Amino acid sequence: MKKNHLYIIGGIIAILIIIGIFSPDAEKAAFNNTAKDVQIITNTDSVLLAPDITETSITPSKFYSVVSVVDGDTIKLNMDGKTETFRLIGIDTPETVDPRKDVQCFGVEASSKAKELLSGKRVRIETDATQGTYDKYNRLLGYIYREDGLFYNKYMIEQGYAHEYTYNTAYKYQTGFKNAQKEAQANKAGLWSPSTCNGDTTKTSTTNSTQTNNADSCTIKGNIGSSKEKIFHVVGCGSYNKTVIDESKGEKWFCSEKEAIDAGWRKALNCN
Fold it and tell me: I need a surface site. Which of 146, 189, 191, 198 has the fewest CB within 10 A?
């Protein structure tokens, strides 16, 4: 009998243990613990998959200073003490700085207009979720507005300094920009004029190849490179037509090679 009692008592204890393990409260506790483990793993994955670049914080209502104008569709901004390259969404201006290409038709004019509008100015940035924050060259993407309200991206298209440009997916102002281009075409403005590019900016700029200073005989271009080296280019140099002189940067025109050398410039290596 004592053994039977022991078996009965042992069975009751076993049943109580089983009930305790599979009670609703116990199941809930087990689920919560599992969920916590999953959350920890998810957070760890997020850190591991974070992009290599540190995204710059953009405040929509804040104005940033323009450090320099690269060309009509690319500028550099001072963003909280850091210089960021900024590519404008929805526009494409003729090339002036791409070393793989000749200066394109109306490129000099577009670049000059950009400098006129933006040099020394402050601009507000508007981003566009449809295009992302950075492009494949790690340039910030967006639209810019001057402090006086000028919508720079659209203005450049309206005045014929840029083509409307869609990269892969439609952007926020695509319809408005396309309409602005149609208006510029109808008005034969800027690059749409038959006397400039007639809409075809892929051809070499005639403005740049014939660019001279006020003295017709002073055709030597004194360029300052990215490394601050002073190099002059004479007619016949392989890079002559690609070189644009920006006197605001200290670049100069010279009337003779001796004048250029005396001023501290050296002759380009690709000259005949």
Answer: 198
- Among residues 163, 192, 221, the one where a domain terminates is 192
Give pLDDT tens digits for 118-159.
999 999 999 999 999 999 999 999 999 999 999 999 999 999
pTM above 0.70, yes or no: no
Residue 17's pLDDT is 57
Catalytic pick among 122, 126, 139, 251: 139
Same domain for 36 and 76: no
Which residue of the set 84, 87, 158, 164 is catalytic? 87
204: left (phi over 0), alpha (psi -120 to 50) or beta: beta
State residue 27's pLDDT score: 43
Same domain, 23 and 71: no
Q: What is the distance between the alpha carbons of residues 153 and 72, in angstroms, rounded to a whole number?
A: 9
Give 247's DSSP letter. Answer: G
Least confident stretch, 47-51, 66-70, 255-259: 47-51
Backbone angles phi, psi at 136, to 5 degrees: -70, -15
The answer to whether residues 25 and 93 belong to one domain is: no
Has 259 been annotated as catalytic? no
95 carries an active-site annotation: yes
Is 87 a residue of the active site? yes
